[in-house]
Amino acid sequence: MSAGFSLRGLLVALGIVALGLLAAFAGLFGVLAQLNDINASVAVLRATQLHVADLELLWSDEETGLRGYASTSDPTFREAYVSAVTEFPVHANAIAQGLSHGSEDARAAAALADARMLNLRWRNQVAEPVITDKRQSIDDSHAASYVQLFHDDIDVVSAVLIEDYHRLLRERSVSIGRASSIGYGALIVVALQILVYAFLFSRLRTELVRERRIITLLQSAFTSEIVKDARLDVAAAYVSATRGAKVGGDVYDIFPLDAQRTLVVIADVSGKGVEAAVDSTFVKYSLRAFASEHAQIDTIVTKFNALYARAQKPPEAFVVLFAGILDYESAALTYVSAGHEAAYVRRPGGIEQLAPTGPIIGISGDTAFTCAATMVGVDDILFLSTDGLTEARDANGNFLTGSGVQRWLSEADASSAQRLVDSLTQRLRRFSRERSSDDLAILAVRPKTA
User: Fold this and answer.
1) Does CATH place domain 225-447 in 1.10.760.10?
2) What is the pLDDT of residue 103?
3) Which terminus has fewer CB within 10 Å in the chain: N or C?
4) What pLDDT does 411 receive?
5) Average pLDDT along the chain
6) Are 179 and 29 in contact (CB under 8 A)?
7) The CATH classification of domain 22-177, taken from the options 1.25.40, 1.10.287, 1.10.1760, 1.20.120
8) Which run of H or E residues covers position 277?
């Protein structure tokens, strides 16, 4: 009876702890949603500040074009004036939209409206008479008064935006503190739940072994491992910048798609360490999934970019990516290089650098990527690396740079992909004296058959 009472008590405690854990997670998700909203408002505010700076520059361009035209009658100055006049309302409307999105201070909207009116009066009373009648001179005192009043209004808008920025930072700090408190509370609840489970289940050791196996599988998922392809001579090397860690933000992948094609990928995720490794795993398996559904590499990368831009990640996160499909029948490599410069084909006659074909991944989810193509035959080696190679430094702090990589490639032993990788990694260790400030991934690929 005592044992039964104790069991019922443990079950009740387990239920209470489980409810507390659910409440903690619900609160944490709410705070994370609030942080996302704050970050979105900060992004709008920063964009609005850029438009304010552009607005001041456009007024200056108007004035410069007007004075140049009045002095020289050169139509180039008149075109500069007209261009600035055309762009002015675009940025003014963007500022107004930004203020309506996040600012709670009516002063900025009023000051912006006054600044637009001053600009219109300046054009009608000072600029247009000179533009329409070249003999008309500029009324400097009248123009100066408009300029001063305009800058006063813009200063008000800028001051309000700065106040809003600091307010958002304070709100974000409070939200982060709240999330930390909830997180600590969740940890405590989890600890209590572990204790309850320890009493409820006598086979805790078996559960721990099972969990350890899961962790091992997850670590293997984070590690770049090449799927063997008998049609390719492949070699790779990886160096993590995080001491004691075997994973990082760089990832490479060789994935056979069918009897004729193989997917080749190398990517550099922003950040370092385990956090970046999680993101790099997302990159690897997302590209595999899209490549299984679509035949064209530009379509694959475009869809991945849209997915990555929508994913839950820091706003500043990005991916530098090279992805290509090697066709054995045609010996053609069709590729997309999203801001990735360290891509080369070593040929018997020299080194060909594969130039980027588009921007980095994650900047805009609406980007449509284009592809390029080159030939990679049995006498060629496709060599890819992340920027940890080009940005390696010698003892004097000098970068290796892309030209240095090309020189090393031309001098290295290229009798096989592995010898090429070994030759470059050994030379890199001597060059950098075993010091690495960035993750580095190297991938070399040579077709075995034509």
Assistant:
1) no
2) 64
3) N
4) 92
5) 81
6) no
7) 1.20.120
8) helix 273-293
